[in-house]
Amino acid sequence: MAKARTIGIAMDYSTTSKTALKWAVDNLIGPGDTVVVLLVLSPKSDPVNKQLFEDTGSPLIPLVELKEIGVCKKYGITPDSEIFDMLDCVSVDKKANVVAKVYWGDPREKLCEAVNHLKLDSIVVGSRGLGTLKRVLLGSVSSHVVENATCPVTVVK
Amino acid sequence: MGEKRIGVAVDFSVGSRAALQWAIDNVVRKGDHLILVTIRPEGDSEAQLWETTGCPLIPLSELCDAQVMKKYGAMPDSETLDIVNLAATQKEVVVVMKIFWGDPREKLCEAITNIPLDHVVIGNRGLGKLKRAIMGSVSNYVVNQSSCPVTVVKHASST
């Protein structure tokens, strides 16, 4: 595990995506790696940001900035202490770089695009999110990412 | 953090070698157990003896022994053996193989609960006759049904 890797974690605040983050922290991430927390927000929620950042998503937001209320509000991110705690832990204990990136649009497409744009070495997703259709085993977004992402995909239940 | 049991689904295809290499490079750490799980079709020589539980864990030293592997009806190719030998020495991991007989989909998922495995790494396409467009039927089934985290490693030529 010598080479520094860029690992994406899909986050939608659901239980499984937090489990996915925790799993990645415990099992995958090592010193020098870069963790990119990928948030895909609904385009309807934030028309201003959406227009501004529609194609490429927000710039990479370092962890330090992410914890500031002002920054969260600007991008429409819901601050979540559980997630911040885990990210702090990763940054300090594992000596990894932590950044976040926000996209607006369809999570299926945006997550797969993120893999290519950010040149992710690997992406971790939860198995089911917040979708209204409580799919039995594997959510539609996770399913789509597993099939279409060009890098190895880990699904955490 | 105690030692983990990481399973790699192996069918000796290029895809499964890619999965094995990825597992070794990314998740396997010193002291972990790397378990190669391979599923043979039913009706093989040893099938009746080990049908329900799969064969006992085969250590690395026996894996490299062609005569032993012939008895089980599973011949690992030399590339796979090279990859695991290197991992065993460089990363100090315990490498074993477990062979099951039956339907790969079911048996892989059973393996996860019975061994048990903390994590499974699988290629996206194997040796199936139907060259499914994106993801093979076994990989697809395991991702959906597995009770532990699953990583699907894409093989270069299929992207």
From TrEMBL, chain A:
Residue ranges occupied by any UspA domain in the UniProt entry: 5-157
InterPro entries in the cross-refs: Rossmann-like_a/b/a_fold, Universal_stress_UspA, UspA
Pfam families linked: Usp
Protein name per Swiss-Prot or TrEMBL: UspA domain-containing protein
Organism annotation: Ambrosia artemisiifolia
TrEMBL record, chain B:
Organism superkingdom: Eukaryota
Domain UspA: 4-154
SUPFAM superfamilies associated with the record: Adenine nucleotide alpha hydrolases-like
InterPro entries listed in its UniProt record: Rossmann-like_a/b/a_fold, Universal_stress_UspA, UspA
Name of the featured protein: UspA domain-containing protein
Species for this entry: Ambrosia artemisiifolia (Common ragweed)
